[in-house]
Specification:
The chain is α+β, with helices and mostly antiparallel strands. The chain has 2 domains: 166 residues, Jelly Rolls (Sandwich); 100 residues, Homeodomain-like (Arc Repressor Mutant, subunit A, Orthogonal Bundle), CATH 1.10.10. Helices cover 39% and strands 23% of the residues. The strands form 2 sheets. It has a 6-stranded antiparallel sheet. β1 and β2 form a beta hairpin. α2 runs antiparallel to α3. The longest helix has 19 residues. The radius of gyration is 23 Å and the shape is globular.
């Protein structure tokens, strides 16, 4: 059995309850703080599973795809609370900070998943104070919700100053590097609007910033990067052309083959695999 209690205003609070095991793919569009009240949650990112146990809390950075495995049993049903921090809320929050207290040396961690230190009383008390809000007959006032969200952000910033760079990736010097992001995600089917949002920009500012780093349009850059990656994999040998085609982001084998030949002058199936280089003599 599944139940979701959702407060959706300027931000989103979600309390989820499951009495049976389940899993789901999740595209994380907003920074999220999740606390496990009971049960077990496994978070799979880039093929690696990380367990989140009762009483533990995790920060999930936006711009990533994950799979959630939710485990429950009769004694311990799955129960979690998640707070999603929207860009508009974080922009408002950032303006309340004292500039002299902002660590300019903070650097954005490439890790999208951060497990917070276990069994912290401040985290446990914070989420225990939130739970009654879902049981109340009336929804808390918007201002009270924002105050709780601000508390959640402060918990993260007090955990690690490096999280300034992740949470406020829409300001200098922490804006996400566009080419770094695309090199890690070119294989996914993302719209320009999604890429702009994931890199902390409006669509217009994304296009302006992209023009500063490439003479190609974003679409042509992604296409060229997929072809380059495909060629590298083909020349390594040992894999089917069709597998490589889909792994680098193409959806049609015939279209991929046509583009590949137009770019490299040879069909993918006729690409020459270089002979392995001999090892140097000792």
């Amino acid at each position: 059995m599944e139940r979701l209690d959702v407060f959706k205003d300027s931000n989103v609070w979600i309390a989820s309850y499951f009495s049976d095991d389940c899993s789901c793919a999740h595209e994380n569009n907003e920074h999220t703080l999740i606390y496990l009240c009971s049960g077990l949650l496994e978070i799979e990112e880039r093929g690696h599973r990380t367990p989140l146990r009762t009483g533990e809390c995790a920060f999930l950075r936006r711009d990533n795809r994950i799979r959630l495995w939710k485990h429950a049993n009769p004694q311990h049903p799955y129960h979690a609370i998640a707070l999603r921090f929207t860009r508009s809320f974080l922009r408002e929050f950032y303006l309340t900070l004292d500039p002299s207290q902002i660590p300019a040396e903070s650097r954005r961690d490439k890790t999208s998943l951060r497990i917070l230190p276990a069994q912290r009383p401040d985290i446990r008390n914070f989420f225990e104070s939130i739970q009654p809000c879902f049981k109340a007959e009336t929804k808390p006032a918007e201002e009270k919700l924002k105050q709780r969200m601000a508390q959640g952000v402060h918990l993260l910033l007090e955990t690690d100053p490096a999280l300034y760079a992740s949470l406020f990736d829409f300001v200098e010097p922490w804006k996400i590097n566009i080419l770094d992001y695309l090199n890690e995600n070119y294989m996914y089917d993302l719209s320009m609007g999604q890429i702009a949002a994931y890199t902390g920009r409006s669509l217009a500012s994304f296009k302006r910033d992209f023009a500063k780093v490439s003479e190609l349009t974003p679409q042509k850059w992604i296409l060229a990067r997929r072809l380059e990656a495909a060629r590298d994999l083909i020349r390594k040998g040992g894999r089917k052309i069709s597998e490589i085609c889909f792994d680098v982001g193409f959806r049609n084998l015939s279209h991929f083959s046509k583009l590949y030949k137009a770019t490299y002058g040879v069909a993918p199936s006729r690409e020459v695999i270089p002979d392995p280089q001999p090892l140097p003599e000792p």
